[in-house]
Amino acid sequence: MRREIAWLAPLALTLAMVNALPGSAEVEPITPVSPAATDPAKADLGRKLFHDVRLSKDNAMACVSCHRLDSGGGDDRSHSPGADGRPLDFNSPTVFNVALNYRLNWRGNFRTLEQQNEFVLLNRRLMNTTWEDLLPKLRADQDYARSFSALYGRGPERAHVLDALATFQRSLLTPNARFDRYLNGQHDAITLREQRGYQLFKTYGCIACHQGMNLGGNLLQRFGVFDNPFTQRGRVTDADLGRFVVTGIEDDRYVFRVPSLRNVAVTAPYFHDGSASTLAEAVEIMARVQLGRDLPSEDIDLIVEFLGTLTGEYQGRSLAAEMNRSTR
Predict the structure, then answer these.
(1) Looking at 89-226, which runs of residues are DSSP E strands?
(2) What are phi and psi of 226, to 5 degrees?
(3) pLDDT in tens, 270-282
(4) Orientation angle between helical segments 113-122 and 158-170, nearest 10 degrees
(5) Three-state secondary-structure class, residue 81
(6) For residue 37, what are the CA distances in angstroms to 40, 99, 172?
(7) Domain covering 9-30+177-311 in this structure, CATH number
Protein backbone atom coordinates (compact mmCIF):
# COMPACT_ATOMS: atom_id res chain seq x y z
CA MET A 1 0.00 0.00 0.00
CA ARG A 2 1.57 3.27 -1.12
CA ARG A 3 1.16 6.15 1.36
CA GLU A 4 -2.59 6.09 2.06
CA ILE A 5 -3.43 4.92 -1.48
CA ALA A 6 -4.51 1.31 -1.87
CA TRP A 7 -4.12 -0.70 -5.04
CA LEU A 8 -6.32 -3.47 -3.67
CA ALA A 9 -8.14 -4.99 -6.66
CA PRO A 10 -6.03 -8.17 -6.64
CA LEU A 11 -6.64 -8.53 -2.91
CA ALA A 12 -10.38 -8.06 -3.39
CA LEU A 13 -10.45 -10.76 -6.05
CA THR A 14 -8.48 -13.10 -3.79
CA LEU A 15 -10.90 -12.50 -0.93
CA ALA A 16 -13.85 -13.12 -3.21
CA MET A 17 -12.37 -16.45 -4.29
CA VAL A 18 -11.53 -17.46 -0.72
CA ASN A 19 -15.05 -16.61 0.42
CA ALA A 20 -16.42 -18.81 -2.36
CA LEU A 21 -14.48 -21.89 -1.23
CA PRO A 22 -16.67 -24.76 0.01
CA GLY A 23 -17.04 -24.68 3.76
CA SER A 24 -15.58 -21.18 4.16
CA ALA A 25 -17.41 -18.74 6.42
CA GLU A 26 -18.06 -15.64 4.32
CA VAL A 27 -16.96 -12.42 5.95
CA GLU A 28 -18.59 -9.56 4.08
CA PRO A 29 -16.39 -6.53 3.28
CA ILE A 30 -19.36 -4.21 3.96
CA THR A 31 -20.90 -3.64 7.39
CA PRO A 32 -24.28 -2.10 8.27
CA VAL A 33 -24.64 1.51 9.36
CA SER A 34 -25.62 1.95 13.00
CA PRO A 35 -27.88 4.78 14.21
CA ALA A 36 -26.06 7.92 15.29
CA ALA A 37 -25.19 8.45 18.96
CA THR A 38 -24.85 12.21 19.47
CA ASP A 39 -25.94 14.80 22.02
CA PRO A 40 -29.51 15.56 20.83
CA ALA A 41 -29.52 19.12 22.17
CA LYS A 42 -26.23 20.02 20.49
CA ALA A 43 -27.34 18.29 17.29
CA ASP A 44 -30.56 20.32 17.28
CA LEU A 45 -28.60 23.54 17.74
CA GLY A 46 -26.30 22.47 14.91
CA ARG A 47 -29.32 21.74 12.74
CA LYS A 48 -30.57 25.31 13.21
CA LEU A 49 -27.14 26.68 12.31
CA PHE A 50 -26.94 24.40 9.27
CA HIS A 51 -30.18 25.94 7.96
CA ASP A 52 -29.38 29.55 8.90
CA VAL A 53 -28.40 31.98 6.13
CA ARG A 54 -26.82 34.24 8.73
CA LEU A 55 -23.79 31.95 8.67
CA SER A 56 -22.89 33.53 5.31
CA LYS A 57 -21.94 37.05 4.35
CA ASP A 58 -24.97 39.21 3.55
CA ASN A 59 -27.20 36.30 4.62
CA ALA A 60 -26.90 34.91 1.09
CA MET A 61 -26.89 31.15 1.69
CA ALA A 62 -26.94 28.42 4.31
CA CYS A 63 -25.09 25.12 4.53
CA VAL A 64 -28.29 23.43 3.40
CA SER A 65 -28.22 25.43 0.17
CA CYS A 66 -25.64 22.99 -1.23
CA HIS A 67 -26.39 20.04 1.05
CA ARG A 68 -30.13 19.47 0.90
CA LEU A 69 -31.39 16.91 3.37
CA ASP A 70 -34.39 16.13 1.15
CA SER A 71 -32.18 15.44 -1.85
CA GLY A 72 -29.51 12.94 -0.92
CA GLY A 73 -27.37 15.43 0.97
CA GLY A 74 -26.13 17.23 -2.15
CA ASP A 75 -27.95 19.62 -4.46
CA ASP A 76 -28.44 17.70 -7.74
CA ARG A 77 -26.13 20.05 -9.67
CA SER A 78 -22.75 19.29 -11.18
CA HIS A 79 -21.39 22.54 -9.71
CA SER A 80 -23.16 24.67 -7.13
CA PRO A 81 -22.95 28.46 -7.50
CA GLY A 82 -20.43 30.09 -5.20
CA ALA A 83 -20.83 33.24 -3.16
CA ASP A 84 -19.64 35.21 -6.20
CA GLY A 85 -22.23 33.60 -8.44
CA ARG A 86 -19.70 31.57 -10.42
CA PRO A 87 -19.81 27.76 -10.41
CA LEU A 88 -17.68 26.15 -7.73
CA ASP A 89 -14.76 23.90 -8.68
CA PHE A 90 -16.26 20.68 -7.32
CA ASN A 91 -19.53 18.80 -7.28
CA SER A 92 -21.00 19.09 -3.77
CA PRO A 93 -20.50 15.74 -1.97
CA THR A 94 -23.30 14.36 0.16
CA VAL A 95 -23.34 15.37 3.82
CA PHE A 96 -25.05 12.13 4.85
CA ASN A 97 -22.73 9.68 6.64
CA VAL A 98 -19.96 12.28 6.45
CA ALA A 99 -18.84 11.32 9.96
CA LEU A 100 -17.79 7.91 8.60
CA ASN A 101 -15.17 9.44 6.28
CA TYR A 102 -11.60 9.43 7.53
CA ARG A 103 -10.85 12.52 5.42
CA LEU A 104 -13.11 15.23 4.05
CA ASN A 105 -13.44 17.07 0.75
CA TRP A 106 -12.70 15.59 -2.65
CA ARG A 107 -9.01 16.28 -2.08
CA GLY A 108 -9.10 14.81 1.42
CA ASN A 109 -7.45 17.91 2.84
CA PHE A 110 -9.36 18.00 6.13
CA ARG A 111 -9.37 15.39 8.87
CA THR A 112 -12.15 16.77 11.11
CA LEU A 113 -15.58 18.23 10.53
CA GLU A 114 -14.61 21.24 12.61
CA GLN A 115 -11.69 22.03 10.27
CA GLN A 116 -13.87 21.51 7.23
CA ASN A 117 -16.68 23.69 8.57
CA GLU A 118 -14.39 26.59 9.41
CA PHE A 119 -12.89 26.46 5.93
CA VAL A 120 -16.37 26.58 4.37
CA LEU A 121 -17.49 29.45 6.58
CA LEU A 122 -14.45 31.64 5.89
CA ASN A 123 -13.76 30.78 2.26
CA ARG A 124 -14.61 33.71 -0.01
CA ARG A 125 -16.18 31.48 -2.64
CA LEU A 126 -18.29 29.56 -0.15
CA MET A 127 -19.96 31.17 2.88
CA ASN A 128 -17.62 34.16 2.64
CA THR A 129 -18.02 35.28 6.26
CA THR A 130 -15.68 36.14 9.12
CA TRP A 131 -15.95 35.38 12.81
CA GLU A 132 -16.08 39.13 13.44
CA ASP A 133 -19.18 39.31 11.26
CA LEU A 134 -20.84 36.00 12.20
CA LEU A 135 -20.63 35.88 15.99
CA PRO A 136 -22.36 39.25 16.65
CA LYS A 137 -25.29 38.14 14.48
CA LEU A 138 -25.69 34.96 16.52
CA ARG A 139 -25.23 36.73 19.87
CA ALA A 140 -27.98 39.21 18.95
CA ASP A 141 -30.45 36.34 18.58
CA GLN A 142 -31.98 35.60 22.00
CA ASP A 143 -32.82 31.98 21.11
CA TYR A 144 -29.24 31.31 20.09
CA ALA A 145 -27.91 33.11 23.17
CA ARG A 146 -30.03 30.92 25.45
CA SER A 147 -29.18 27.69 23.63
CA PHE A 148 -25.43 28.31 23.58
CA SER A 149 -25.44 29.39 27.24
CA ALA A 150 -27.33 26.26 28.28
CA LEU A 151 -25.05 23.92 26.34
CA TYR A 152 -21.66 25.65 26.55
CA GLY A 153 -21.94 27.94 29.56
CA ARG A 154 -21.76 31.16 27.58
CA GLY A 155 -22.97 32.81 24.39
CA PRO A 156 -21.87 31.83 20.88
CA GLU A 157 -18.11 31.48 20.40
CA ARG A 158 -16.09 30.15 17.47
CA ALA A 159 -15.40 26.75 19.05
CA HIS A 160 -19.04 26.36 20.10
CA VAL A 161 -20.40 27.09 16.63
CA LEU A 162 -18.00 24.61 15.06
CA ASP A 163 -18.81 21.97 17.67
CA ALA A 164 -22.58 22.32 17.25
CA LEU A 165 -22.35 22.13 13.45
CA ALA A 166 -20.11 19.07 13.62
CA THR A 167 -22.39 17.37 16.17
CA PHE A 168 -25.35 17.81 13.83
CA GLN A 169 -23.37 16.48 10.89
CA ARG A 170 -22.32 13.45 12.92
CA SER A 171 -26.01 12.75 13.47
CA LEU A 172 -26.64 12.46 9.72
CA LEU A 173 -26.20 8.72 9.48
CA THR A 174 -28.57 6.75 7.27
CA PRO A 175 -29.11 3.25 8.69
CA ASN A 176 -31.56 0.56 7.65
CA ALA A 177 -30.80 0.40 3.94
CA ARG A 178 -32.20 -2.71 2.33
CA PHE A 179 -28.66 -4.02 1.94
CA ASP A 180 -28.03 -3.47 5.65
CA ARG A 181 -31.10 -5.54 6.43
CA TYR A 182 -29.76 -8.22 4.08
CA LEU A 183 -26.42 -8.21 5.91
CA ASN A 184 -28.31 -8.53 9.20
CA GLY A 185 -29.93 -11.76 8.03
CA GLN A 186 -33.07 -10.61 6.20
CA HIS A 187 -32.19 -12.40 2.98
CA ASP A 188 -35.34 -11.35 1.12
CA ALA A 189 -34.53 -7.66 1.68
CA ILE A 190 -32.85 -7.58 -1.73
CA THR A 191 -33.78 -9.41 -4.92
CA LEU A 192 -31.83 -12.18 -6.59
CA ARG A 193 -30.74 -9.73 -9.30
CA GLU A 194 -29.50 -7.32 -6.65
CA GLN A 195 -27.61 -10.16 -4.97
CA ARG A 196 -26.05 -11.01 -8.33
CA GLY A 197 -25.10 -7.34 -8.74
CA TYR A 198 -23.36 -7.45 -5.38
CA GLN A 199 -21.38 -10.53 -6.38
CA LEU A 200 -20.29 -8.78 -9.58
CA PHE A 201 -19.38 -5.70 -7.54
CA LYS A 202 -17.02 -7.89 -5.52
CA THR A 203 -15.71 -10.06 -8.34
CA TYR A 204 -14.82 -7.19 -10.65
CA GLY A 205 -12.91 -5.52 -7.81
CA CYS A 206 -15.12 -2.48 -7.08
CA ILE A 207 -15.01 -3.59 -3.47
CA ALA A 208 -11.29 -2.79 -3.35
CA CYS A 209 -12.02 0.89 -2.83
CA HIS A 210 -15.68 0.79 -1.79
CA GLN A 211 -15.90 -1.29 1.38
CA GLY A 212 -16.45 -0.91 5.11
CA MET A 213 -19.47 0.72 6.71
CA ASN A 214 -19.45 3.67 4.31
CA LEU A 215 -18.45 1.77 1.13
CA GLY A 216 -15.66 4.28 0.64
CA GLY A 217 -14.45 7.44 2.30
CA ASN A 218 -11.61 5.58 3.99
CA LEU A 219 -8.76 5.88 1.48
CA LEU A 220 -7.29 8.00 -1.29
CA GLN A 221 -7.03 6.78 -4.86
CA ARG A 222 -5.91 7.95 -8.29
CA PHE A 223 -8.78 8.66 -10.68
CA GLY A 224 -7.68 7.00 -13.89
CA VAL A 225 -5.58 3.91 -13.18
CA PHE A 226 -5.99 2.20 -16.57
CA ASP A 227 -7.42 4.98 -18.75
CA ASN A 228 -7.62 8.78 -18.82
CA PRO A 229 -11.06 9.89 -17.58
CA PHE A 230 -10.59 13.40 -19.00
CA THR A 231 -10.07 12.38 -22.64
CA GLN A 232 -13.57 13.26 -23.82
CA ARG A 233 -13.57 16.60 -22.03
CA GLY A 234 -10.28 17.55 -23.66
CA ARG A 235 -8.81 19.69 -20.92
CA VAL A 236 -7.63 19.26 -17.35
CA THR A 237 -8.53 21.82 -14.67
CA ASP A 238 -6.91 22.52 -11.31
CA ALA A 239 -9.82 20.66 -9.72
CA ASP A 240 -8.90 17.55 -11.74
CA LEU A 241 -5.39 17.55 -10.27
CA GLY A 242 -6.79 16.39 -6.92
CA ARG A 243 -4.44 16.29 -3.94
CA PHE A 244 -1.52 17.47 -6.05
CA VAL A 245 -2.84 21.03 -5.60
CA VAL A 246 -2.61 20.58 -1.82
CA THR A 247 0.65 18.66 -1.47
CA GLY A 248 2.64 19.44 -4.62
CA ILE A 249 3.69 15.77 -4.64
CA GLU A 250 3.71 14.27 -8.13
CA ASP A 251 2.27 10.96 -6.90
CA ASP A 252 -0.79 12.89 -5.69
CA ARG A 253 -1.70 14.11 -9.18
CA TYR A 254 -5.32 13.05 -9.96
CA VAL A 255 -5.66 11.52 -6.47
CA PHE A 256 -8.96 12.02 -4.64
CA ARG A 257 -10.69 10.77 -1.53
CA VAL A 258 -12.75 7.77 -2.59
CA PRO A 259 -16.40 8.78 -2.17
CA SER A 260 -18.90 6.77 -0.20
CA LEU A 261 -21.45 4.77 -2.16
CA ARG A 262 -24.05 5.01 0.59
CA ASN A 263 -27.23 6.50 -0.94
CA VAL A 264 -25.44 6.72 -4.30
CA ALA A 265 -28.67 6.09 -6.20
CA VAL A 266 -30.02 9.45 -4.97
CA THR A 267 -26.86 11.57 -5.25
CA ALA A 268 -26.49 12.19 -8.99
CA PRO A 269 -24.57 13.67 -10.73
CA TYR A 270 -21.35 11.79 -10.02
CA PHE A 271 -17.59 12.33 -9.68
CA HIS A 272 -15.71 15.40 -8.47
CA ASP A 273 -16.77 17.32 -11.57
CA GLY A 274 -20.34 16.05 -11.77
CA SER A 275 -19.58 14.76 -15.27
CA ALA A 276 -21.60 11.52 -15.03
CA SER A 277 -25.33 12.19 -14.99
CA THR A 278 -26.49 8.62 -14.37
CA LEU A 279 -25.35 5.78 -12.15
CA ALA A 280 -25.00 3.44 -15.13
CA GLU A 281 -22.67 5.92 -16.81
CA ALA A 282 -20.62 6.23 -13.62
CA VAL A 283 -20.30 2.43 -13.28
CA GLU A 284 -19.20 2.09 -16.92
CA ILE A 285 -16.56 4.81 -16.52
CA MET A 286 -15.24 3.48 -13.23
CA ALA A 287 -14.91 -0.05 -14.60
CA ARG A 288 -12.99 1.23 -17.61
CA VAL A 289 -10.67 3.78 -16.01
CA GLN A 290 -10.14 2.14 -12.60
CA LEU A 291 -10.36 -1.58 -13.36
CA GLY A 292 -9.45 -1.70 -17.04
CA ARG A 293 -12.68 -3.53 -17.87
CA ASP A 294 -15.40 -2.88 -20.45
CA LEU A 295 -18.41 -4.34 -18.70
CA PRO A 296 -21.36 -5.94 -20.51
CA SER A 297 -24.48 -3.78 -20.27
CA GLU A 298 -26.28 -6.52 -18.33
CA ASP A 299 -23.55 -6.54 -15.68
CA ILE A 300 -23.72 -2.74 -15.42
CA ASP A 301 -27.48 -2.97 -14.92
CA LEU A 302 -27.06 -5.59 -12.20
CA ILE A 303 -24.45 -3.54 -10.35
CA VAL A 304 -26.69 -0.47 -10.56
CA GLU A 305 -29.55 -2.50 -9.10
CA PHE A 306 -27.29 -3.55 -6.22
CA LEU A 307 -26.24 0.06 -5.62
CA GLY A 308 -29.91 0.96 -5.31
CA THR A 309 -30.10 -1.21 -2.19
CA LEU A 310 -27.66 1.12 -0.39
CA THR A 311 -30.20 3.92 0.10
CA GLY A 312 -30.77 4.33 3.83
CA GLU A 313 -33.16 6.20 6.10
CA TYR A 314 -32.98 9.62 7.69
CA GLN A 315 -35.32 10.39 10.57
CA GLY A 316 -37.13 7.12 9.90
CA ARG A 317 -37.87 7.86 6.22
CA SER A 318 -36.13 6.37 3.22
CA LEU A 319 -34.05 8.92 1.34
CA ALA A 320 -35.55 7.52 -1.83
CA ALA A 321 -39.00 8.49 -0.55
CA GLU A 322 -37.69 11.94 0.41
CA MET A 323 -36.30 12.39 -3.10
CA ASN A 324 -39.60 11.41 -4.67
CA ARG A 325 -41.51 13.78 -2.41
CA SER A 326 -39.16 16.72 -3.04
CA THR A 327 -39.40 16.38 -6.84
CA ARG A 328 -43.21 16.28 -7.04
Answers:
(1) 220-222
(2) -110, -15
(3) 999 999 999 999 9
(4) 120
(5) strand
(6) 9, 11, 10
(7) 1.10.760.10
